[in-house]
Amino acid sequence: MSVQLTISAVFVFLDMHPINKPEVFVTFAPSKFDGKGALTDETARELIKKLLENLVAWTRRLKSEKG
After folding, report:
1. For 43, what's the count of Cα atoms within 13 Å in the CB-facing half-sphere?
2. What is the pTM of this model?
3. How far is CA 19 from the centre of its chain?
4. pLDDT tens for each residue of 6-56
5. Pick from 27, 18, 63: which is nearest to 47 by CA?
6. Is the dihedral of CA 10, 14, 15, 20 positive or negative?
7. 24: which residues sit within 8 A by CB, 6+ positions away?
8. How many CB atoms lie within 10 A of CB 20?
């Protein structure tokens, strides 16, 4: 069983609310960062941006549900 599947099972057990999409996998990560540590891969940057946008939206929904 992969680490990701194991973590997913823990989230279900704890009734946590993970952000499932988009999934972000940065393959060959060492080649996708410059010498200063900045992510240079545009596809990965866009996926991370979308993931963060989804996190903000999800947080706002949870906040509004709790009133």
Report:
1. 7
2. 0.69
3. 6
4. 888 898 899 887 787 888 888 899 999 999 999 999 999 999 999 999 999
5. 27
6. negative
7. 44, 47, 48, 51
8. 11
Provide the token pair at 27: 């393959």
Separation between Cα atoms, residue 41 and residue 29, nearest integer Å? 9
CA atoms within 13 A on the CB side of 36: 2
Distance of CA 60 to the CA centre of its chain: 17
Tokens 């947080």 found at: 59
CA distance 65 to 59: 10
Tokens in use for 44? 């990965």
